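Why does residue order matter? Because the sequence determines the fold. Keep that principle in mind as you read this record.
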Amino acid sequence: MPTEDAGKRNTQRETGELRRDKNSCPTTSGSLGLDLAASVDCVLHTNLPQRIPTNVYGPIKINGNPVGALLLGHSSSTMKGLFVLPGVIDADYQGEIQIMVTAIVPPIQIKKHQRIAQLLPFPALTNGHEPAVANQRTGGFGSTGDTLADVKN
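Structure:
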């Protein structure tokens, strides 16, 4: 049984012709998130964080509407010693979505089309609020703009 089918019921396994665009798709009809796969073969030789390209670009749209998403790791990735650092993808992000990973015990090989992370989509909850920054987004990893709210104990 292929590793990507482990833990699935027969009714949940993909059937028919293989898809070519498997870098971002739900695994089953009941999946909460979208699987993200590596778009290149690579080997992690150290435990330093590294970015893995996906060839998937924002904005993420569900039913034609842009949504934000939480990027989380697959539990199967963790079982193989690969830790996916969680992240937030904003609804207006337009670059390539990359997966930040670290090897718990290197070396770890990641194969092209290997599903290692998942996106959990969320609607933009800040609609109707005036943006703190009027400029367009200019970066990938990290926050954009000044502090909007300072929460203190």
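The chain has a mean pLDDT of 79.
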